[in-house]
Amino acid sequence: GIICASDPLALGAIRAARRRGLAVPGQVSVVGFDDSAFMNCVEPPLTTVRQPIEAMGRAAVDLLCAQIQGGEVPPGELLFEPELVVRGSTAQAPRD
To answer: Which of 32, 42, 79, 88 is deepest in the core (most CB within 10 A)?
Structure first.
């Protein structure tokens, strides 16, 4: 399988695999990142990792507003859980 840093890179990986005669997902699975628009409209539909963009943006705005108002801004990092969106570019691994 191939895991790519972005959905466009994943589409390129699918194209490269096909040029080499490999079936996606039959012989190789491909996963992208970001759940870009129209990834469910490509062939095969791309399995991808979706980030919680709205929650991330909301948290950033909340922290910025608190800082502007002189409030306490907690140190450290915020963690957000991504979601795996399984579509047609991946298959289960063959069993021995």
So the answer is: 32
Q: Residue 55: what pLDDT? A: 96
91 within some domain: no
For 77, other C-beta atoms within 10 Å of its C-beta total 6
Would you state the pLDDT for residue 74? 81
| Phi-psi sector, 44: left (phi>0), alpha (psi -120 to 50), beta | beta
What DSSP state is assigned to residue 2?
A: E
Structural contact between residues 4 and 29, judged by C-beta atoms closer than 8 angstroms: no
Whether residue 54 lies inside any domain: the answer is yes
Q: Output the pTM of the full model.
A: 0.81
